[in-house]
Amino acid sequence: MNSPYLDWPAVGALWLREMRRFLRMRSRLVGTLVMPILLFLYLGMGLNRVIVGGLEGTAYDTYVLPGILAMSLLLSSTFAGISVLWDREFGFLREIMVAPVSRLSIVLGRIAGGVTTTLIQAAIITAAGVATGFRFASARLLPVGLAVLVLASIGFIALGLVFASRLRDTQGFNMVMSFVILPLLLLSGALFPLATAPAALRLLSLLDPLTYTVDGLRACLLGRSALPLALDLGVVAAFAVITVLAGTALFQRTEGTKG
Amino acid sequence: MPAIRVEGLVRRFGDIVALDGLSFEIGEGELFGILGPNGAGKTTLINILSTLLRPSAGSADVAGFSVLDRPDDVRKSIGVVFQESSLDTRLTARENLSLHAAVYRVPRAERRQRIADMLAMVELEDRADSLVETFSGGMRRRLELARGFTHRPRVLFLDEPSLGLDAQTRRRIWEHIDQWNREQATTVILTTHYMEEADRLCGRVAILDRGRIAALDSPERLKALVGGDVVTLETSDKSGALAAALRQRPWIKAVRERDGVLDLSTEQGAQRIPAIVSAAQDLGIALASVNLHRPSLEDVFLHFTGRSMREESANDLARRFPMGRAGLQ
């Protein structure tokens, strides 16, 4: 019943809104930018002298950069999706739902905003890495790395939308953080290689889309990965498609015309 | 073509029947009031007409489009100001209007001027670039009203537009609504539980009571239906002689006494005043003042529902909506 057309001016206006809010919410800006950088510096400097298994000769601070990128992506993208909860609570969502815009355009506006903020953060973290001595393995694979970043970001934003449609209010956000985001992060091997971890954990990690994000980023930035890059890219792309379909459908059902 | 056509509209929430078979039409250019206590079904009706809620049965057309089959066309034709704020408080007033204008496809060339005009109209131009979170309730309400009209909708829904506002802001908001209705020929449908608001603004009023339309007509005719006028006499007579004498007159329907004041219900009160005055003179009773007034919408509501608005609001709300804001979320 909702027409599937895409309304680009509306997508653009919603993107602009996300940007304005992002720049105004100082705490979010600081939390999502400073935290990963601090973590990067802390882990990099701290663990560089500790023996971490499975690194195969790479310095830890180099090894961990793709993981930090993936972690920041996970946090900012999921938040961008799940922040629909706040729009619902503060009433703004009704203004958008009653507007003559397809629900798909509303979802795309949010995704566009979330991907942009995620990329800004990734750029800053990468710059911090380069400033502290990180060197790219090859420039040729950088566009592929960007593709992994964008696709994974879309996937986690849509995953946030899925959670937002299942939760009644902003109270549920902390639960999602503890029971979804943190496990996704820990299982992905973003911060240390899972090569030495128990088999059960390694198996579980294969169900985590962030695993393929991290691995794909390592392939592109470090030139080394546990899985083939094509597989990483394929899984991340499939994850994005599935979550966008599910997120849009659920968003339409919970926020659209009721009855 | 009517702006709104509703037929046999029913909406249930579980066992609660919020709308119980409404049928009515609103013509293009009308300023139409839906009057009723909280919980009467006003917001449910607005939500259905603005495509946010599907009816359980019956049909509703807005601007000629069915809310069930052509919701997108309905959305293109309407503006809605919700009872609860739906502004983005992290954006400025201007940014809120500009987002709205883009989403409603106001031509780019007109946007800037249109937004400036709207902000000036609701007297917020000097706060145009302040974040909405710094605004008072009245300022937010005015901004929201301006936003609802920024895209010049054919049909404008206002759900309790002056709820919780001070008298001065309320009067200003009434002026805007009246002006848009007259100058832009916008059909306005507003819900309210303020009798004065409906009386002042609306050409026609539907009294909604427990999901049904108890009465629908112009405020004047509704009041005429209740019947006659009220003539209030102020007198020094404490004997009750005047009251007794007036009770004999067949054209006086009721007499109510309260220390030194007599309220008389009568048809064509203006023509009856000379007879009332001479009746007092015949008895040698001096009148300090004579006041003639029409029944208020409050009297109308009482007449059609058997309850006053006040008791209805207090008692009925808790009973009919035990889970709170049923139908909003």
Q: How would you sum up this structure, described in words?
A:
The complex is a heterodimer of chains A (259) and B (329). By secondary structure, chain A is mostly helical. Chain A has eleven helices and no strands. In chain A, helix 2 (26-47) packs antiparallel against helix 3 (60-82), helix 3 (60-82) runs antiparallel to helix 6 and helix 7 runs parallel beside helix 11 (229-255). The radius of gyration of chain A is 19 Å and the shape is globular. The mean pLDDT of chain A is 88. Chain B is 39% helix and 27% strand. Chain B has helices spanning 42-49, 71-77, 93-103, 108-121, 137-150, 167-183, 195-201, 219-226, 241-247, 269-282, 297-305, 309-320, and strands at residues 4-13, 16-26, 31-35, 57-62, 65-66, 78-81, 155-159, 187-192, 204-209, 212-217, 229-235, 252-258, 261-266, 287-293. In chain B, helix 3 packs parallel to helix 5 (137-150). In chain B, strand 4 and strand 5 form a beta hairpin. Chain B is built from twelve helices and 14 strands. Chains A and B meet through helix 1 and helix 5 of A and helix 2 and helix 3 of B.
